[in-house]
Amino acid sequence: MLTENEIISELKKLYIFEWISENTIEKVLKNWEIQKFEPNTIIINQWDNSNSKAYIILEWEVSVFIDSNFVAHIWKWNIFWEYALICDEQRSATIKTNTPLIALVIDKEIIFTLVAEDININKIITSRIEENMKNWRWNFGE
């Protein structure tokens, strides 16, 4: 399993966290949950209501399906469902584990804590998530 320092170092490389200080990430990381999933587990079902969580893959990979059709693999250090952090819409795809999976689970309330501390973080998070979702939705054919 990765150490907290290794996780922080890798998180700083993700577009959504690259502008956040290590101190802020450390503070918030204490409230994030690391969750393990067995192979062939459905983490998210298409059309389910949002659970207001996003996931960062720490180990292994998942598959993405839209209308039961495979559309993509997502690997280590990728984030999925960050759109759920700002929008309570139904899930637009199904996510299924291929192998045992370890993910960092980010809850909307944790992100709101960051946003409350700095209006610039709010603007950056919203802008980056919207940009990413436009790109993903185009890739998934939505």
CATH top level class name? Mainly Beta
Determine Rg (CA atoms, Å): 15 Å
- Please tally the helical runs, counting DSSP H or I stretches of 4 or more residues: 4
Strand pairing plus helix content: what structural class?
Answer: alpha+beta
Q: Which fold name corresponds to the CATH topology?
A: Jelly Rolls
**Average residue-wise pLDDT:** 78
The ordered string of helix (H) and strand (E) elements is HHEEEEEEEEHH
Proportion of residues in extended strands: 25-35%
Main sheet strand line-up: 1-8-3-6
Q: Say how many strands there are.
A: 8
Written description of the protein model:
It is a single chain. It contains 4 helices and 8 strands; from the N terminus they run ααββββββββαα. The protein has 142 residues and is α+β, with helices and mostly antiparallel strands. The protein has one domain: Sandwich (Jelly Rolls). The strands form 2 sheets. The chain has a 4-stranded antiparallel β-sheet with strand order 1-8-3-6. A 4-stranded antiparallel β-sheet has the order 2-7-4-5, with no helix packed on it. Strand 4 and strand 5 (69-75) form a beta hairpin. Helix 1 (4-11) packs across helix 2 and helix 3 crosses helix 4. The radius of gyration is 15 Å and the shape is globular.
Helix-strand layout with pairing:
Elements: H1 4-11, H2 22-29, E1 33-37, E2 42-44, E3 53-59, E4 61-66, E5 69-75, E6 79-80, E7 94-97, E8 101-107, H3 108-117, H4 119-140
Antiparallel strand pairs: 1-8, 2-7, 3-6, 3-8, 4-5, 4-7
Helix pairs in contact: 1-2, 3-4
